[in-house]
């Protein structure tokens, strides 16, 4: 079935300006983009934009813990370590596979309705997360969060992560699997070496929290790049470092297979600090954008993350040009897709996957938007309230308040029951 977006604006993180076009989607991909002045191609379904709709790439939430929707609001306004140790970890002990399944689906409702088509998730009971993802038809980069604990726990978690990869890596083109060592302070160096050896022998990437707080940098005890090199993390097929607030942009970390994940709202809320994003961008280093879990953000809304990233660094650096709207749009889409092994995703190009967001521009705050300034309007004036539809592989997963592949009422009820059970 072919869907025609007739007379819509398109923009993405690679364009200096938007274009007004007809865009045809067929067999899951963008198959034709022609100027809106030309005769539109025929299609089974036509969405008439009349120059009042935009089509942008679906967002890739490059770092989250989806099922933490069930923990939202717990331990608000406390420092990271206290928050983890006294509020989060004890409640996580009570999570069952079913609770994680419904918590993840609840997160997916939030993400789809705000334009996210793919998310990178680090948690546990990831078989159930994969099941939720495949059932919905969304895309996800999944890893099992690996932490030390009682004897044998790390080894079991690594095996669990390998089993997950064997079962789900590449499945239906919707899922990629990474290894998920949690952080330097929860995984001993020897176990990290085991994990990176496993990543290399299985051809898997690694998703890792790194230098979220200043205390973590002090406790590391060695130069951060030396730590990454000594543990083998720089030699794995690809590496995503969530937060990297205290990683020095002047350090000689190679960029070939490393992406930093910026989580500005979570870092602000937990008082962790501000990543030196302008310096990384200046250097041309890949940086993607993520929300982190719903209990430290507390939204799973990439519009909010884009706007925060675009504003925060201007103020902190007293420089209104250091992070542009195009930069954050690219970080919120293409960079995350590339970082987790999803090719031909994150730009509006012929032949690329039709993972798209339909944006309603027929609203007061878009008056004056045109080809020249649309990306700026989206980032600075737009919000997730403008999302009219979210499509993955050419299929609507969210459209005008409805979720064609998900039972949103049941999910919300089950997630509510899970929340009650774990906080009782
Ligand atoms: Ni995190």
Tell me what you see in this structure:
The chain has about 425 residues and is α/β, with parallel strands linked by helices. The chain is built from 14 helices and 16 strands. The chain has helices at about 80-90, 95-115, 125-135, 155-170, 190-200, 215-220, 225-230, 265-270, 275-285, 300-315, 325-330, 335-340, 375-380, 410-424, and strands at about 1-10, 20-25, 30-35, 45-50, 55, 60-65, 115-125, 140-145, 175-180, 205-210, 240-245, 260, 285-290, 355-360, 385-390, 395-400. Strands 1, 2, 3, 4, 5, 14, 15 and 16 form an eight-stranded mixed beta sheet that branches. The termini are far apart. The relative contact order is 0.18. The structure holds nickel (II) ion (NI). The site of nickel (II) ion has 6 residues, from loops.
Concise summary:
36% of the residues lie in helices and 23% in strands. The chain is α/β, with parallel strands linked by helices and 424 residues long.
Low-confidence runs of at least 5 consecutive residues: none
Q: How would you sum up the global shape?
A: globular
Sequence of secondary-structure elements: EEEEEEHHEHEHEHEHHEEHHEHHHEHEEH
Rg over CA atoms: 21 Å
The count of β-strands is 16
Question: Main beta sheet, described?
Answer: 8 strands, mixed
Q: What hetero molecules are in the model?
A: nickel (II) ion
The share of residues in helices is: 25-40%
